[in-house]
Structure formats: structure tokens, C-alpha cells
Amino acid sequence: MSQFFERKKQELGVQLNKIQRKAVERTEGPLLLLACPGSGKTTTMIMRIGYLIEEKRVSPHRIKAITFSKASANDMLERYKRFFPTLQPIDFSTIHSLAFQITRDYFSGSRYVMIEGSETNGLHKKKLLREMYQTENDEPITDDQLEELISFISFVKNKMLPRKQWAKLKEPFPGAIEILKTYEAFKENYDVRLVDFDDMLSLAFEALDKDKTLLAKYQNRWDYVMTDESQDTSLIQHAIVEKLVAHHKNLCVVADDDQSIYTWRAAEPTYLLKFRTVYPDAYIMKMERNYRSSQNIVHTANQFIKTNKKRHDKNMFTKQPEGDPIVLKRLSSEEAQFKYLMKELKELSDYGDVAILYRNNSSSTLLMSELERLGIPFYMKDADNRFFSHWIVEDMLNFMRFSLKPERIDIYSKVASKTNAYWSGSQLKMLSRMKPTGKNAFDEINLTITLKDYQLRILAEQKKWFAALNGMKPLKVIRTIRSEMGYDQMLASRAEKFGMKMTYLAQILTTLEQIAEPLESMTAFAKRLKQLEQVTQQAKVEKTDDMLTLSTFHSSKGLEFERVYMIDLVEGVIPTEEDAETPDTLEEARRLFYVGMTRAKNHLELISYDSESRFVGEVRNLIIPEKRQVSPQRTAVKTPIKVKVPDNPNAIDSEDDLREGVQVRHRVFGAGKIIERDKERISIQFAKERKDLMIDICLSYRLLELM
């Protein structure tokens, strides 16, 4: 061990393993450092910077570190200051910050206007896109669609896709490509150059590609460049880095292709597989030892991710104790999952090292409501208030407001098109111009607007329903609006027309019903929604060491907890139907699941209900058919020992025999009938209960025979 490593061991108590030391010492030329979860990559990077300065006498000003986010840049800078308090800081920044510097130099002397961030002279990206959508579709864009449109534009820019390829792209909703064209044309033809954050990347690359003087300036600024979280880097971001290091090629890329979960933001994980194509002399190292998690978690997660094909082959291992077995809970319903979680949490005395992880933010609303009621302190890593301002939530509240004040024709005009009355565009415009007179709105409509006979009949029914709503509990109110007033039918029609995800929209209504269930009045329902909105806002800003963490899988990356509960692990959520469409998108969904699993140190629970996620099935196949022992070879990796299978010459040995309607006998549960089957599992109705069984386990262990 060199004096540097011995010195740091004494000063900091930091002791690197053999691979980490090699990564620190290999400073010259291109290096791809593949770092498994919990392998100490940040410590290794910081030590590498210190080694360059203290041992190789490189000036701190000649080292550049590029991170994925501002938070990561700040975290690395703080870690660097703790490790090397007497050294000058090096340049830590995001790729966008670097691109901004380059673009500013490129435009030196020329005027341009940034239209993202703060508004300038009435120009703002979101405002412009809202107006363009309104023009294209003759109706306002929803917040969800706006986010999808912004992500789509960012994807196109980061993929460096030429305009001739735009027409072949899959749109987030019909008309998105036309809006993209309009947006780009508007920026280009404006009096001054209009620039958004994604343009910064395009312009930075253009600057380095076209302005040789500027390229030389930035190439000569740094002798060593490091990039962190490079599996989340887009094609154009990689291209900028390639320009910067073209002269010396002293580039250290730290990444884990198994944790690439942002391809929808144009991340390019396949770049890592082609690294030697770009840098033929590159050295590739693998940091495979996990210091975070127990053997049970590490071994299972390592085997689970190997199902993916497009990846560097890695074998994550650990020397940690075996730890708790991974818990698989398949419950009868979402409500049962919810009750189980609350029971589990109430038995804990400390929440500071506990996390509940989920795919979508919509999963957090009811959790948050019950946690607040029970007085369990919690923090939301990525709290999203958009749920409470979603147009579906506003629709339900407007239906309720109008039922309480049927003279408010201005409120009815906001939801009229969401009912089954088949309003025409001209009728809706007339309706929107009408003012309350104090009389029942339906009586005023009949006197003012010319209606078809069938519309008169429908409005007469609506008048009765709105009067009836006044005496209903809020849960029944929502269900009545959905079924009797045609709201669900309208929702399906709008989802198809505008490319919205029906499962997501239906989940919002389900959440509203669950919030409404214990409440006695519509007023109490509206008040509870406002309370939850305030709680969500507070949960984003307050964070103490004793708080439970709620987070999406995406936002949990980089975090670790003693106990992790992964919830809502059902088909349609993870993976979604869109995930399952192609092998690449399914592999990304599996990587996202893997990220969630590897957040846990010792206790991991995978919780599902209804149609269990195929990923839970994959984990079950890894841990249930095997009994594990500690291997004496290399780092105590667990190896399977096959369970002895009882001899049963009459057992079913072909899955073709396992058809719906077939009568079978189970070695433990007795006689039953197969009532449902998919590719992986069968449901058998036995005398007293129904059982869901994995097909391959039934065959491997010869559990079933025909009757």
C-alpha cells in the first residue's frame, strides 16, 4: 500500500479495497469504472481526485468533475472538503452548468434570451407551449400533458435527432410533433435568439464543433475529467465530453448500466457497452463488492438483474452477514396492502432508517393521509402537489360545489362537457357566457340555449341527480358522477383522443374514492383535500433524522435504508403496459425494480396484490426453490443447493396439461380445479380456498397430478 493510502487510512479511517485502489491509481487515459450499488464509488472518486493532487502534483484547477445533478455536485464538493480540507476545491458542476458557460462564451457580444427558469419579457417555455397546444387542439393543455410535451422536446434534443427523423417518433399525444415544429420555428424566427435548457446542450456542442478557438480554450482548461452517474448521460452530453477530452483522453467515467433508469429522458446506457468503440485504449474496471446490503439482498438482486441482456456482466457480492430473508407479501387488495403497512409501521419504534418506495407518486397520497392521522413523522423525497391541482380532482370538486349551489351556472359550465349531455362547441360557448341569476341553472339553460330533444331529457335527469347528490356521502357522490353522469365514459373518450394513460386517470379517481370513504359530507371531503395538500407541501421541506421516507423508485437512487418496503408491485404499474411493449423498455423497468431492491441494507419487503408483478415472480423463483449456504470461495457468495424432489410417477410434467377447467390433485392442498392461467402461474380453486401457484415450481417439484 502506498504512503497515500496509508496516510488516508490514519487521517480519515478510509480503507479502500484492491479494486478501489487500482481505480484511484489509474489516472492516465480513458477509464470506465462500473460501480455496483453500495460499492463506494463516491469515496473512490474523491480519493482519486486527492491522489491526483497530493501524489501526482496536479493543480486542482486542472481537474474537472461533471455530475448528473446539482445536488450530486454539492454533495461531492462537501465530501471533498471533508476528506481534503487543506486543498483547494476543484471544479464540480453539472453538464448543464458547463454547457451554459460554453454557450455564454459562444454568444459573446450577441444577444440571446433564456426562456426557461424565470420569465423574460413575457416569454417562457411553458407559457409558449400552453399557447401552442391551445391553438393546435382548441382546448387548454393539462399539467400532465405539458410535462409529457416538455420531456418529449428534451428527448429529441438530447438524442441529437435531425428534423427529418421527427415524423417517425412516437408522440406522447397526437399533435406533439407539430407543436415541437412550431416551438422551434418560433424560437428561430424571433427578433433575438431564444434559448431553453436543452438548447444549452445543443449550442454547447455546436460551439465546440464549429469554433476551434473556443474548443481549444476548453480543452486546455483541464487535464483530467471525471463524469459521475454516466449511465444517465444523454448522447449529446457524451458528445460534449468527448470534445473536451479529445486532446489528452484522461477521462474517468463512473457508471452502472444496471442502474440506468432515465432513457425516457434520453439517457444512453448502451454508450457504456460501446465505450471501447469510442475509446479503443480504454481500461474497464468493475467495483462489484457491495458494502451496503446483506447477503440475502445482494445475492438475490445480483441474480435478478442478470435476466437483462444488454449489460456489462458483473457479479455483485458482499461480505456482510446473511441478514433477514427477503419478505414477499401478496395481499388480496390495495386496501389490504395499506392495512398491512400501517400495522408494520406501528410496531416500529424508530422510522429514521425506514423507507416506503413506489413507482408512481399517486401511491403516496393515501399513505400520507394515514401516516398523518397516526402521527408517524415522514418526509417525501419527491413530493408532488400536482395531484391536488389535477383537472380530475377539480372536476369532482366542481360537481360537488354545483350540487350544493345549483344556481351557480358558472360552476356547471366548467363540468358540462364532462357529462353525457353531448354539448356542441357553440352551446358550450353560450353556456360559458351565462351569469348566475339566482334561479336553478338548468331552468336558465332551457330558456337561453336551444337544445335537442335528447339533450333536454338528459339535462332533466342531471337536474334530478344533482339534487340527489346533496344528501349523499362523498364516496357515493363520486361513484354517481362516474356512472350516472357519464364521467367515466367521457374520461375514456378523452384518453383515447389525446393519448392519455387511462390507468393513470382511473387511479386518481380511485384515490379520491379512498380519501372520501370515511367522510360524511362533501364539505369535509373538500376540507380533507386541502389539508392533504398542505401536508404534502410541508413534507417536501421538513426533514429530520427520525422521519420515515416516502419516495418513488427513481428518486430513491443513491439512498439507503435499514428497512425498505416496495409497494404496489403489480402488473400495469411495474412493469407498465408500455414497459412490456419492447425488450429494451422491459429491461429498463427491471433496472428500476433493481434500484429499489438495492436501497435496502438488511430488511426488504416486496408487496403486491391483484395481478402480481412479473418481477416479484422472478424474485420468488430465485429465493423459494433454493436453500442457500455460505460459499467458502470468494466473499461468501451464496450458492444454491437443490431441494430433493419427492418421487411421484403420476405427477404432471408438461405445462400443456395445466389448462383452465382441468381437475388436479395437489400434494399438500388436495383436490382442486384450475380456474385461471397465464404464462407463469395458475389459479386453483380448492375446497376451502383459492391458491395462485407458479407453473415451473409445480412442475419442478412434481406437486400436481391429474384426477
Automatic annotation (TrEMBL):
<keyword id="KW-0347">Helicase</keyword>
<dbReference type="InterPro" id="IPR013986">
    <property type="entry name" value="DExx_box_DNA_helicase_dom_sf"/>
</dbReference>
<dbReference type="Pfam" id="PF13361">
    <property type="entry name" value="UvrD_C"/>
</dbReference>
<keyword id="KW-0378">Hydrolase</keyword>
<protein>
    <recommendedName>
        <fullName>DNA 3'-5' helicase</fullName>
        <ecNumber>5.6.2.4</ecNumber>
    </recommendedName>
</protein>
<feature type="domain" description="UvrD-like helicase ATP-binding">
    <location>
        <begin position="14"/>
        <end position="294"/>
    </location>
</feature>
<feature type="domain" description="UvrD-like helicase C-terminal">
    <location>
        <begin position="295"/>
        <end position="558"/>
    </location>
</feature>
<dbReference type="InterPro" id="IPR014016">
    <property type="entry name" value="UvrD-like_ATP-bd"/>
</dbReference>
<dbReference type="GO" id="GO:0016787">
    <property type="term" value="F:hydrolase activity"/>
</dbReference>
<keyword id="KW-0067">ATP-binding</keyword>
<keyword id="KW-0238">DNA-binding</keyword>
<keyword id="KW-0413">Isomerase</keyword>
<dbReference type="InterPro" id="IPR000212">
    <property type="entry name" value="DNA_helicase_UvrD/REP"/>
</dbReference>
<feature type="binding site">
    <location>
        <begin position="35"/>
        <end position="42"/>
    </location>
    <ligand>
        <name>ATP</name>
    </ligand>
</feature>
<dbReference type="InterPro" id="IPR027417">
    <property type="entry name" value="P-loop_NTPase"/>
</dbReference>
<dbReference type="GO" id="GO:0004386">
    <property type="term" value="F:helicase activity"/>
</dbReference>
<comment type="similarity">
    <text>Belongs to the helicase family. UvrD subfamily.</text>
</comment>
<dbReference type="InterPro" id="IPR014017">
    <property type="entry name" value="DNA_helicase_UvrD-like_C"/>
</dbReference>
<keyword id="KW-0547">Nucleotide-binding</keyword>
<dbReference type="Pfam" id="PF00580">
    <property type="entry name" value="UvrD-helicase"/>
</dbReference>
